[in-house]
Description:
- This protein has helices at 19-23, 39-53, 57-73, 77-93, 97-113, 117-134, 137-154, 157-173, 177-194, 197-213, 217-234, 237-253, 257-273, 277-289.
- By secondary structure, it is mainly alpha-helical.
- It has a domain at 215-290: Serine Threonine Protein Phosphatase 5, Tetratricopeptide repeat (Alpha Horseshoe).
Amino acid sequence: MARFLTLPALAQEQNTVSPEQEGTITPSDAIVEVDSKKAEPDKLLNHGISHFGRSKFPEALQSWQQVLVIYKQIRYPEGEANSLTSLGNAYGTLGEYKTAIDYHQNSLVIAQEITDRLGEANHLSNMGSAYNGLGYYKTAIDYYQQSLDIFREIGNREAEAKSLRGLGLAYGNLEEYKKAIDYHQQSLAIARKIGNREVEANSLNNLGGAYYYLGEYKQVIDYQEQSIAIAREIGNREGEAGSLNNLGNAYYELGDYKKAIDYHQQSLAIARTIRDLIGEANSLGNLGNA
């Protein structure tokens, strides 16, 4: 059976909170006067985010390591936590999950010390993502559940949907596909209610993934086609390529090899256009199988 892909747009969701969300600093008017010391590190932090978005990982890591030192020196815990989170997300993307966990654990400690409930929930969710990547699925579930409880407590619906997604992925990895479907359905319902098309597309893709492993390939096709339509609508080329690849896998399992090849070729073309080496490798592998 071919490997079914989760959409990368939220993988870092992997990670329920991306470096863009965690790293961008917006000081409140009340503390602008004391922000002069952190103007430069804030800029450096966002330079790292820019590098990361262009897959320049060594440059991003260097920027964030530098800014972490500065935030510590000026005693700005929120910035320190943002830097640690960005580093954790980056190492998670690179597959270095143990290093990612160390950074997210340090971020979590800071959030708890300064009573930042949103930050605490974000860091718990990131811990869940890292443990999920490491293969410790029950530990991941524990962290995702803790984050979900806080997001519900503070009324953050978007983050709630992402924690539900994480739970669905972890239960899927445990081969508890019916539980996975339940969590992905909850995530999808919230995404549609709040109008978050990216999370909606991701949830549809993940539902397709759960049904794929249950052998219900027509359901997979239905969910993937919906996911592709949204990805095209919002211009998420990486997500589009991932869902096309998954659609090809479903047709392969149904014995329709011509359609499978067509979808894998479309996925490959996009992966090459956006220079997604991992996506390109997956598409080539699936074309080889077809």
